[in-house]
Amino acid sequence: MAQPRCRSVLITGCSRGIGLGLVRGLVEANPAPDLVFATCRYPEKAQELQQLSKQYSNIKLLQLDVVCENSIKKVVKEVEEIVGDKGLNCLINNAGINVLASLEEVTAETMLTIYETNTVAQLMVTKAFLPLLRKAAQLSTGMGCHRAAIINMSSLAASMQLVQANEMFLKVYPYRIAKTALNMITRCLAADLKSDGILCISLHPGWLQTDMGGNMAPMQVQEAIPGILSVLDRLGEKENGSFLDWQGETLPW
Ligand code: NDP
């Protein structure tokens, strides 16, 4: 009998960087998911993603601004119309922002902006897609992306245990605090949704050369994507509620 596989994936923030790399990696994989919902807030400006979606018919390019309630509602409806009773197998909460701010520089406004995009949005997007994730979960057994999974794109910078080891992150107060809160969302969802058969993890994608990662980063996006996809492929009940990196290593909270 064929192995169960992930039929549908939705990724936020696919206009560039890791989100775009994940879309490319997924459609080039063998087997590729039947449907890759590549969402971004300004599809008309996302030239590379547009090109890719012309090459691969399994890419559905949809508009989604993760901090906009109406945009979330609209995209859920669009996805529902396509997947029907099969639901959605995997939601990757990838969209994120960073604003450099040391202790001296950080303001309430920056904290709230980052918290809105990097933490609150992930919870709201996940809540909105829960009915579709539940539908997919009902059609399969076990745990993992073949059934139903939520992947929260976190960061090594969020680890409370590694704060001392990563002094370079001291200038990113808002970012790392918001990602630590995102990790708590992962833990809560993993506990809450376990009985539905929906898995949730936090993933550190590696320090990668993107607009956010900068050009000092040791790796390019395409170097980390095979690792990330293999980690996602291997997820099972044991990994539910864990904090993993792109090589599948467990990170301390
Ligand atoms: P980039 O800055 O290159 O890309 C960020 C993406 O998020 C863009 O597609 C951007 O869209 C999108 N985005 C931002 N705000 C919104 C919004 N409100 N709605 C929808 N999309 C939005 O970042 P990376 O690709 O490097 O990062 C991706 C994820 O990985 C982030 O969550 C980041 O925190 C995490 N990460 C990255 C690391 C790295 O080294 N690069 C390391 C650890 C974690 P737009 O083009 O419209 O602005």
TrEMBL record:
One Gene Ontology cellular component: cytoplasm
Superkingdom of origin organism: Eukaryota
UniProt key word Metal-binding: no
Coiled-coil region(s): none
One Pfam family linked to the record: adh_short
GO molecular function: oxidoreductase activity
Family annotation (InterPro entries): Fungal_SecMetab_SDRs, NAD(P)-bd_dom_sf, SDR_fam
SUPFAM superfamilies per UniProt: NAD(P)-binding Rossmann-fold domains (SSF51735)
Keywords on record: NADP, Oxidoreductase
Keyword Nucleus: no
Protein family per UniProt: Belongs to the short-chain dehydrogenases/reductases (SDR) family.
Descriptive protein name: C-factor-like
Species in which this protein is naturally found: Accipiter nisus
